[in-house]
Design goal:
Length: about 300
């Protein structure tokens, strides 16, 4: 699995690059804002982006800001023409659907992906929250789709009435297996109390329970990646998955088990992937047991 770092912070990118395991970078307008605020004007934004592109010999995603298809294409072409010559690694991030309200066009993103892909500009389709969106993006020719794991877990928890901060901190793993066990327990009780015929479609409470703790059948962010991987493999699409909005190292492991081609990971979560209590404990014991005679053989 390729590892991208999910940040626009130059120090983080440079350090991750020095580890020798970095394959790319993803940015978005919020990450650029955070990085620029932290850098306190050390570089112009243009130079900052150039430095990122030079630091990493792998795809660097830069996102458009417009919401209408032609405007997105114009911005994408401007970004690509301005920056791709630096290191040949610019990928344009296009939201799968730019509609912010009910009556807005839901296909502006897909249309932009199609136009850009046909003209040879690689697209990372972002803000993917459901498998059908990934299917549409793949059909339009996206090189990458980015399902947002953490935000789907947040959404499911919101629907369950849990509040981030009050009920769970940002880096908390969402135990969808536990949610499923609870749902199944209550479903079985209802079925045995009322009989199977009565509960299917005729009983609102059961149907509410059926929808509890999932998003149209997707039980977690990891499940979203699993579903998209199946769909893309079924039809041999070349589109690669970038598992995004990652909050924990456990999510990264599960995405690797599923076979997601790439995970874009916050800097601190990449560090978390390397840490285990027993490794540190073992290291300490080895360090204490080194005898001088052995040490002298290594000089
Ligand atoms: C990366 O491509 C995404 O923009 C990013 O992973 C979003 O992460 P967040 O949900 O933590 O903001």
């Amino acid at each position: 699995m390729d590892i991208f770092v999910d940040t626009a912070d130059l120090d983080e990118i440079k350090e991750a690059e020095s580890w020798g395991i970095l394959n790319g970078v993803t940015t978005n307008p919020s990450l650029i804002k955070k990085a620029v605020d932290n850098a306190e004007g050390e570089l112009s934004l243009e130079d900052h982006i150039i430095e990122i592109l030079r630091t990493v010999d792998g795809p660097v995603s830069l996102e458009v800001t417009e919401i209408e298809h032609e405007n997105m294409v114009n911005e994408a072409e401007t970004l690509y023409d301005r920056f791709d010559d630096i290191n040949g690694n610019v990928v344009i991030k296009i939201p799968v659907n730019t509609a912010m309200g009910k009556d807005e066009d839901n296909f502006e993103g897909v249309k932009a992906i199609k136009t850009l892909s046909e003209s040879g500009i690689p697209v990372n389709c972002t803000l993917v929250m459901k498998p059908n969106q990934a299917l549409m993006a793949a059909k339009a020719g996206a090189e990458y789709v980015s399902p947002f794991l953490g935000r789907i877990d947040d959404y499911i928890r919101d629907q369950m009435g849990l509040t981030r901060g009050d009920d769970y901190p940002k880096g908390t793993y969402y135990p969808s297996e536990l949610t499923e066990m609870i749902r199944n327990f209550h479903m079985r009780r209802r079925i045995s109390e009322q009989g199977p015929e009565q509960v299917v479609y005729k009983d609102k409470e059961t149907m509410d329970l059926f929808a509890w703790g999932n998003d149209d059948g997707i039980v977690s962010g990891v499940d979203l990646v699993w579903s998209i991987k199946n769909i893309l493999d079924n039809y041999s699409y070349k589109t690669e998955i970038i598992a995004a909005s990652i909050r924990t190292a456990r999510q990264v492991r599960q995405c690797a088990e599923i076979g997601a081609e790439i995970a874009t990971i916050p800097f601190d979560v990449i560090e978390e992937m390397m840490v285990h209590y027993k490794t540190s404990e073992g290291m300490k014991a080895f360090d204490e047991d080194v005898i001088p005679e052995y040490k002298s053989l290594l000089k």
